[in-house]
Amino acid sequence: MNRQELVAHIKAKKSFLCVGLDTDIEKIPNHLKETEDPIYEFNKAIIDATKDYCVAYKPNIAFYESLGSKGWSSLEKTLNYIPKDIFTIADAKRGDIGNTSKLYARAFFEQMDFDSITVAPYMGSDSVLPFLSYENKFVILLALTSNEGALDFQFMTSNSTGLKLYEKVIEKASTWGNPENLMFVVGATRPEMLKNIRKLAPDNFLLVPGVGAQGGSLEGVAMNGMNKDCGLLVNSSRGVIYADQSESFATVAGEKAKELQQEMEGYLKKFGVI
Ligand SMILES: O=c1ccn([C@@H]2O[C@H](COP(=O)(O)O)[C@@H](O)[C@H]2O)c(=O)[nH]1
């Protein structure tokens, strides 16, 4: 999917919601555990219930690869089940020397047909460029993450440039890619930082995790980070998919996703995107 198509889906659905498929076998309702592939059955029900309210799904790869070959199989089946007009994100946080990154890119863009993958920036250009060589695919580069540990390195300031590390990541990576193939991860837990990030990356989409279970504010994100095309994909994983753990889990997940979509519709109108 290209950027123009993503923007068109956001406008049509009046939503910039990304539902995180962090499907944890421990948290799946008991009645599904008797099925042959509980992870896939859970994801199918979540997708059926939420697909009208979201524009992206983000399976976090750790939840699948931790189950070995069966997990990879559940992931592939889930990816194939997601409607083709919904943007897909492999939250894999990959990145290695160029020769190895090339194979990570092949795994997620050719073996599996994800629209995008999250990539760690710290090994530099040769670790990221192989992912950027694919047409109509996106790299989503970690810039300012939502966790406590973000404070350990990401705010360090360079004596020579005065830039913080996350700012340098955005500035430098913007010379490798462009808004047609490059997005950045910015946590919802630091919404006040989004104004500054928008100065460095006015047109790039930002993937914003941290709304829901991590306590990030959707309002703060929208008010500080929205651009003329929306420019935001706001993710909620646990806050949607585990909103209820009974047999009604999917219905409640659908209601949660709808609530978020309705709030998003308000912000899209406020900023003249729709
Ligand atoms: O900075 C980051 C980068 C990635 N994540 C991932 O997003 C989801 C958030 O899940 P919630 O249940 O909505 O908290 C999860 O897959 C993280 O690994 C992030 O949270 N922050």
Automatic annotation (TrEMBL):
Alphabetized Gene3D superfamilies for the sequence: Aldolase class I
E.C. number: 4.1.1.23
Stretches assigned to the Orotidine 5'-phosphate decarboxylase domain: 16-253
Pfam family, one: OMPdecase
Chain's gene name: pyrF
Keyword set, alphabetical order: Decarboxylase, Lyase, Pyrimidine biosynthesis
Name of the protein: Orotidine-5'-phosphate decarboxylase
Cytoplasm among keywords: no
Family: Belongs to the OMP decarboxylase family. Type 2 subfamily.
Lineage: Bacteria, Pseudomonadati, Bacteroidota, Flavobacteriia, Flavobacteriales
Gene Ontology molecular function: orotidine-5'-phosphate decarboxylase activity
Catalytic activity of the protein: orotidine 5'-phosphate + H(+) = UMP + CO2
GO biological process, one term: 'de novo' pyrimidine nucleobase biosynthetic process
Domain of life of the source: Bacteria
Pathway(s) per entry: Pyrimidine metabolism; UMP biosynthesis via de novo pathway; UMP from orotate: step 2/2
